[in-house]
Design brief:
Strand content: under 5%
Order of helices and strands: HHHHHHHHHHHHHHHH
Number of strands: 0
Oligomer: single chain
Distance between the termini: 39 Å
Largest sheet: none
Number of helices: 16
Helix content: over 70%
Length: 444
């Protein structure tokens, strides 16, 4: 190290299995604290939006935000996983130049995908805007919101904070989103409750959250690290063999998994109409809390799993998978019980009488979320072992089943049929993940 280099955080020793789970639970605790704020405030701002816009208006709003989120998911890489996967060794050895190059490389990747997404957003709105219920008056606001959604992707700073075990700071930055949405929804409701107004509030929340993430990174000194040691990003593929394949495979798998939760909404809106899309979106928004739990478990465990599997024995890998399966299965059962008891009252409280038909949709999507939750451990371990290609193949099968079931059930059950199709796809993924876990343990 020269006198001008900046030392990275002190490396942490490779944890034992028990230490790995303790660290993952500590990380999860910080993220759950942030998500608890989101869950509570979302009940309020969703209630304001649904009651202000009505079923059809909220349906249009849901289609716009859903399309923007789907587009962002399609083009954005899971850069935070790349940072964690390839930054662990550099951080442990105190290699500041390697960390700087990695940080800058994934930041460039995020910027490039954002530019691609902006172009796609314009093309999609020009071709399919009317089919999605987005008329000429909403097209400009929709494009602006989509651009904001794309340029505020914060995967790189998220990965930097998680690599350095700064989960508390990431949770604090995440909390900006629900707070700004809540305050913005109140302001729009009081001034002029329109779709454009709520889009502005949601977009402002994305901008301020991204700013909060980068401020946290700057305060930790990592932006300085990127500036001083970030040259030579072209050498990243040589410096980290397999990094391109890992980035592509994790992006493909994540894109399928996350976009498959948004595409059903667009399908309902295009085939059944904006009113049905509004009903579906509200139910999905409540049920997505389950998907968030599975994502939180994965993100909390991933840094610790990466550190552990690099030197894990076959017996230790089997125990790790078993404990992850058991923990996520128990959590899924508990969440399903909560939905069964409190789902309908919460749905009526947030949406009112106009959304009373959303209960079957919520129930089916909750089952799908619980099935996703049971497989999150296998997904995390296989990704850490750089077997994201297998995860991608499993998700391709699940998405295929979902689409086939949706087209078969939608003529009979409308939005509820699409929710049933989502459950069918999740069930297939859960069964294939369980088989992959069993094979992985035996092979080990």
């Amino acid at each position: 190290m020269t006198g001008t280099s900046i030392d990275p955080p002190a490396p942490a020793p490779s944890p034992a299995p028990r230490g790995m789970f303790q660290a993952a639970m500590r990380n999860l605790g910080w993220m759950l604290a942030s998500r608890s704020v989101l869950a509570i405030l979302s009940l309020f701002y969703l209630g304001i939006a649904t009651r202000s816009l009505g079923v059809t208006g909220f349906g249009r709003f849901a289609l716009i935000t859903g399309a923007a989120q789907t587009l962002a998911t399609l083009v954005a890489f899971q850069s935070w996983q790349v940072v964690v996967q390839y930054g662990v060794r550099a951080r442990a050895t105190g290699d500041a130049p390697a960390l700087g190059r990695l940080y800058r490389g994934v930041a460039y990747l995020d910027a490039a995908t954002a530019l691609v997404g902006v172009g796609l957003a314009w093309v999609i709105l020009e071709i399919w805007g009317e089919a999605l219920g987005i008329g000429a008056t909403l097209k400009r606001a929709t494009l602006i919101f989509a651009v904001v959604q794309l340029v505020t992707v914060r995967s790189t700073p998220l990965g930097i904070l998680r690599l350095n075990d700064r989960f508390a700071l990431a949770a604090l930055a995440d909390s900006v989103t629900p707070v700004v949405r809540f305050l913005g929804a109140i302001a729009v409701w009081l001034v002029h409750p329109t779709v454009q107004g709520f889009l502005f509030a949601w977009g402002l929340a994305e901008v301020l959250t991204a700013a909060a993430y980068w401020i946290m990174v700057a305060q930790q000194g990592d932006l300085t690290l990127m500036r001083r040691h970030g040259r030579g990003v072209r050498d990243l593929p040589r410096e980290h063999p397999g990094i391109v394949r890992f980035a592509l495979s994790t992006n493909a798998s994540s894109t399928l998994g996350l976009s498959s939760k948004q595409v059903p909404l667009l399908l309902v809106g295009a085939v059944v109409g904006p009113a049905a899309a509004g009903v579906f979106r509200l139910a999905a928004q409540l049920a997505q809390a389950l998907a968030k739990v599975s994502q939180l478990l994965s993100r909390a465990a991933f840094p610790e799993v990466v550190k552990s599997v690099q030197s894990a024995t076959p017996q230790r890998l089997g125990r790790m998978l078993s404990r992850l399966f058991l923990g996520s299965g128990v959590a899924a059962l508990g969440i399903m019980a909560i939905v069964a008891l409190a789902g309908k009252p919460v749905l009526n409280l947030v949406g009112g009488r106009d959304f009373r038909h959303a209960w079957p949709v919520l129930l089916w999507l909750a089952v799908a979320g619980c099935l996703d939750l049971t497989t999150v451990g296998v997904d995390t371990v296989m990704t850490a072992l750089q077997r994201a290609g297998t995860v991608f193949a499993i998700r391709v099968v699940g998405v295929g089943v979902m689409f086939a079931a949706a087209f078969a059930l939608m003529p009979w059950y409308a939005a509820t049929g699409v929710a049933m199709a989502v459950t069918a796809g999740s069930l297939v993924v859960a069964l294939l993940m369980a088989a992959a876990a069993l094979r992985l343990s035996r092979r080990g």
